Amino acid sequence: MLVPFLFIGIPLAAVVILNALNWKNRWISLWAAVAVSVIQLGLGVWDLVRVVSTGTPVSSSFFGNFTVDSFAAIVLTIIGLLGCVTALVATGTIHESRFSFGSALLVLLMGMNGVVMVRDVFSLYVFIEVTGAASFLLIAIDKKRDELEGAFKYYLMSALATVMMLLSVAFLFVLSGGTSYDGIAAYVASLNGNYPVMLNAAILLFVIALSIKSGVVPFHTWVPDAHSSAPSPVSVVLAGVVIKVSGVYALMRVYRDVFLNDPKIGMALAILAIASILVGALGAIGQSDIKRMLAFSSVSQIGYIILGVSTGSMLGFVGALMHFFNHATFKSLLFTDAAAVYHQTGTRDMDQMGGLGAKMPYTSVSSIIGLLSMSGIPPLSGFWSKLVIVIAVWQVSPGLAIAALCLSVLTLGYFLILQKKVFFGKLNPAMDAVTEVGGSLRFVEVLLSAINVLAGLLFPVVLYYLHMRGIL
Amino acid sequence: MSGMSSALPLWLVLIPALFGALVLILPGKVKNGGLVGVFAGALGALAAALSALGQSLEFTRAWAGWGMDFSLKLNPENLPLVIAAAVLTLVVAAWAGLSGAYPAKSKVFMASMLFALAMASGALMANNLVAMLFFWQAMWAPVFGMIQAGGENAWKTSVKAVFTAGASDLLMILGIGFASFSAESMTIDAMRVPATALGSWGFLLMAVGAIGKLGAIPFHGWLYDASEDAPAPFMGLIPGALNLLIGTNLLSKFPGMFDGASSGAMLLVLIAGAGTVVLAGMLSMSAGGFKKLAIALNVAQAGALVLGATSVAGGAFAFAAIVSAAAGCCLYLSASQLEKDAAGKSTLASFAFYVSAGAAVAVTFTGALYRIALYESWLSLILSVVALIGAIFAVSGVTGLIRAGRDGEKSVPSFDLGRAQAWLDRTRCDPYPAARAAFKGYAKVSLTVNDAISWFYDVGVVWFVGFLSGLVKKAHNGSQSRYVLWVLAGAVIVIAIFALS
């Protein structure tokens, strides 16, 4: 079966063809990224339906072992959606380096798809590196000082993570004699909890490395700088999907499929998650740069996803994936809104804004939808994912569930601050000439808003289906 | 009692919601389109509700698994509340149309009114705790839209409303979790929460959620800002009417849902109810204007509703919610009109204000007397008597304002009670002079308590969150070396967790 390989092969072929032909038309690369993403979206949905209906994963061993199970199919679909959104936002905001942007985005898609489908820790490491390298390129694509600094910080933190991960892979290879998920898992299971020091070290190194990639507190420091300094479409894809695939998803896979839901990892993740929810939200409240505020809010929301993962239960994983999807859609929506505001006003400083709601009604309403969803207000999608996560955490530790619930009020805090400073209140006279964005940006705003509302209505049906199928 | 399966309960939610969506997408050129939409949506909902008279209908579909069903139930107990919600939405829309009190963003405002009606109807009919929570929380979106439609000053109100009600909603979610876990069910009319510690916490926290929705003390502070900043139709519809209906409706289900809470939990709820009536009664005595008096009376009747609805026969008391919602709605609308007009000009508004004030006071008395009549324990009797004293204060607040207007002490319009006032003076039945003389000091205490609660929300919470946020901001100073130290510290923490667990 070739389908899993197509997720690697199609973007790879597109990059090679684009660069081999060396077309002068700079638009072609962005539209190629849109086309590849749409194909991936279709393939992802197709795979998802097939995997869920048959109950068996799809594998291919052409140029490596790739497997698509239900979790992977969901994430591949999300990557397709976000790839498409990012390329569309780029058509409206990237004016220089369009060709390079499109090529790097295709490489990024390939890297993330690999992370999602691989079944051995070394390949996981390789594809995480591919994703990281493409991300550095994208952040620094315009070669401006801020962008280079953000990319450098991301690179430095990634380098730390890389060293740790590689060392961990080496330890695991020495201990289990291989690097496949199944082989290591069999070795871990055979120990009955009596882990040698080297295995504990390998687990610790992997967890810390992927925590850096996930941007959870206290390993999050690169997130605000990289997100805020990156060009707008790069912020969309970074916050929307990159850190979640190369960090959170990889962590979930390793925790579940390799280390067999080790309770020590679960405990560590739960504590890091609660710290992320708190520090991320407090950090967001204190910002005046709109993108920096959204970046801190990503740290907070990723805390919820990690909290779901930390339970080690199927319900927790499903809640985490639901919030993964939601965060991908509402955070991309909010970064698109930020891009629209920046594009029209020329500033990201919220203290210089105000009253833009009347001038930019689509952007204003879509930001309210995104923020309400993020705050977990029904009928939007965020309500269901947070509810499922809280229920899953409750089953493991009621205290943590209560803490997560109480801290969610802080989300409302920065939601209101953003709304007040940007869209409500008195219009800054200097912004009297501001108009609404059009074209691809407006299309993305409407599309992602609609997805947030529709997902909110459909999530209970999905949960019911999974419940009835005995998956949950 | 199981009802006949029907989609009508669902339509009661869908009709106003669909009209709300229609209003939103109406072109701006359509004159009065928003207002017409509200009338059509609310009338449609009213007609659908009236068609269910005398029937018990149920709409239940499997929703999200684990007992989280989408279950709506319409029966003779909650049908009057659903009808009241639709009627009061019509009243507020009519008032907005007649008085010209269109908020600046009227389309958003009118659509929000319909969404609020849809969600309130859903919350009133929900027969599953998660479905109830869904509608209850979904009211946030229209509430936010309506407050923001008020204009530039609405920001402060939004913050207070969000944090006050947000906090109480969070506690309610916890309460729902505790109660469902204890009862092993989420179906409201089937669940019996045992009187365990967890069950009692469920009772208490869910009661806090309902008390917060009712706007009882200490969740009333945002009303003062809202009465100044938010459009009057918002005050009339949300805190004045819909919140009272859904809050009381939930409380009235408690006697059926809980086998009995611990005496401590019940005592705390009683104290909240009686304390609210007394403090609000005192606030009414020191209210210097119509809006403040309207708030005090509304808060007082919220306290009385807490007392009545949580009693052993709470279901029967739910009907008082209809009177209180009508009174609350009318109080806010007429108070807004009176403060806008020159003193003594609005006879009709004065009349409406005093009649609704009388109704609010009557609800307050009824709550206290109802609880006394049911006599559950000595403690409940004492607290009910305290609430009765609070109701007397509330009456004094009303008569005090009438006097102030008549005697020219305050530039407020006064409705001339004519012979009735003369009779009150002659027979000394007006409790105001006695109440004022006797409890001047306590009124000051109530103001101090009120100010302290406002300070907590306005200054305390803001300062504390700002302080913590400032610390986080300082810690992220862009220094790469510091960030590497963060990572090292994190690594130490993770290793420590591993070592200790």
Tally of helical segments of chain B? 19
N/C terminus separation of chain A: 28 Å
**Oligomer kind:** heterodimer
The side-by-side strand order for the widest beta sheet of chain A comes to: 1-2
Radius of gyration of chain A: 21 Å
What general form of chain A does the structure show? globular
Number of strands of chain B: 3
Task: Determine the fraction of residues in helical runs of chain B and give it as a percent range.
Answer: over 70%
Describe this structure in words.
The complex is a heterodimer of chains A (472) and B (501). Chain A has 472 residues and is an all-alpha fold. Chain A has three domains: 117 residues; 104 residues, no CATH class; 212 residues, no CATH class. Chain A has a two-stranded antiparallel ribbon. In chain A, a hairpin with a 5-residue loop joins strand 1 and strand 2. In chain A, helix 1 packs antiparallel against helix 2. Chain B has 501 residues and is an all-alpha fold. Chain B has two domains: 151 residues, no CATH class; 284 residues, no CATH class. Chain B contains 19 helices and three strands. In chain B, strands 1-2-3 form a three-stranded mixed β-sheet, with helices on one face. In chain B, helix 3 packs parallel to helix 13 and helix 4 runs antiparallel to helix 6. Chains A and B meet through helix 6, helix 8, helix 9, helix 11 and helix 16 of A and helix 5, helix 6, helix 7, helix 18 and helix 19 of B.
Task: Please describe the structure with a list of short key phrases separated by commas or semicolons.
heterodimer, A: about 475 residues, mainly alpha, 3 domains, two-stranded antiparallel ribbon, 18 helices, B: about 500 residues, 3-stranded mixed sheet, 19 helices, about 75% helix
